[in-house]
Amino acid sequence: MKIAIVGAGAMGSLFGSLLAEGGHAVWLYDVWQEHIDAVIQNGVAIEFGGKTRQVRLKAAADPLQIGESELVLIFVKATQTKAAAQTAARLAGSRGLVMTLQNGMGNAETIAQVVPPERILVGTTSHGSTMLKAGSIRHAGAGPTTVGMWAEGEKEFQQARQIADQLTRSGIETTAVKDVRPVVWDKLIVNIGINAITALTGIKNGQILDLELTRELSRAAIEEAALVAQAQGIRVRKDPATHVFKIAEATAANRSSMGQDVDHGRPTEIKALNGFVMRQADRMGIPAPVNRTLTALVQTVEEHYQ
Questions:
Q1: Coil, strand, or helix at residue 54?
Q2: What is the 3-state secondary structure (H, E, C) of 44-68?
């Protein structure tokens, strides 16, 4: 299968490399010319388990070099989704599928403005990856991936299963579901409980659990998000905070992606995370003061980067 990756950062390079190792014809696309040049010359260096391997695959800073693809994966920040969706639509042509495993909400809706919903796959992944330098990443951890078609139906579900099987055969353990929205909300709630707090305080994921005050702040943000989901008919876990705290413990030494963005003075995904919950709560008349405050604080930090 010919596959294009739009956004060849840490996660895009990881998935592209794993799919290339699985025998697919993979192209990485990114505007970071130094990285693209390094991949063209030497492939992607993947550090995992104390060892490093090189994976050869094609790369381009111009999507016109790639041509139409059967599957296009989007791995950009939520703030870049609109532009990435336009590129993905051109690469997918009239029949290709477009898949997003991005953080946050609203990405699928943005992609659906230029790609029919019956050709959009949405999902989440527990794989972790860190960019070390141009042409080099660290595979920080492996875990399950879940995908589903944005348009529900038996035909679409079978299509999602076919893609899940292709990913699994490439070493990306993937399950297809008929209704992907609860899965995306589940991931959103995890990010709601961890990302903004770690970004604002400079702490790592596990340190959320150190103080009762911090745990309660996280719990309050999580419970607001869960109420918004339930008001939309989305199934959520009975005790989502306990689930989030377990993930914070399992990733204790990690700095959240939003934390890393703040550390480096980059735009964050706050509008697609806590900001999304705030807007949905406003629309339905549900109070969400904690998510409103976290959103305001992160946006204030962004506005005053040096």
A1: strand
A2: EEEEECCEEEEECCEEECCHHHCCC
Element (H, E) at 43: none
Residue 174: DSSP 8-state? E
- Summarize pLDDT for 276-297 with one digit per residue, the tens: 999 999 999 999 999 999 999 9
Q: Phi, psi at residue 76, to the nearest 5°? A: -115, 170
136-141 and 128-133 as β-strands: parallel, antiparallel, unpaired? antiparallel
pLDDT tens, position by position, 113-124: 999 999 999 999
Does the annotation mark 187 as catalytic?
Answer: yes
- Active-site residue, from 187, 238, 246, 271: 187
Cβ–Cβ < 8 Å for 123, 148: yes
Find all residues with CB under 8 Å of 296, minimum gap 6, and list them.
none
Residues of the chain with pLDDT under 50: none
The pLDDT score that the predictor gives to residue 80 is 95
pTM, rounded to two decimals = 0.90
Which structure tokens are listed for 111? 């992609």
